[in-house]
Amino acid sequence: xxxxxxxxxxxxxxxxxxxxxxxxxxxxxxxxxxxxxxxxxxxxxxxxxxxxxxxxxxxxxxxxxxxxxxxxxxxxxxxxxxxxxxxxxxxxxxxxxxxxxxxxxxxxxxxxxxxxxxxxxxxxxxxxxxxxxxxxxxx
Length: 139
Fold this sequence. Notes:
By secondary structure, the chain is α+β, with helices and mostly antiparallel strands. It has helices spanning 16-28, 69-78, 99-115, and strands spanning 39-45, 51-59, 83-89, 118-125, 130-132. The protein has one domain: Cytidine Deaminase, domain 2. A five-stranded mixed sheet has the order 2-1-3-4-5, sandwiched between helices.
């Protein structure tokens, strides 16, 4: 599902804070019940790091969202986005990435190398804050 962005949200990404400010707004658009489920989004970027699209690729349960790498890369390939950023929420508010979060990130980074699509970051977000894989050297 493609996420609609305002003109002000179609910005050039320079930091994880830029990503979080947009994704927090998108998460808060959800109802309280909707925010209790894990969401997994992909942000496609142009070569200039300007946002091309944001797509919700999985809506899961309270503790997990099933992510298929094919869905991660399908829109990036169709739109010829050379860079992507992964974002998912933890409804619990605990921002520490799980082992499963780290495994799927490593698999997606490896797939991106094959397709020459760079994975710039993976953010775990809550309503109040975020955790950046790139800032913690986990990519």
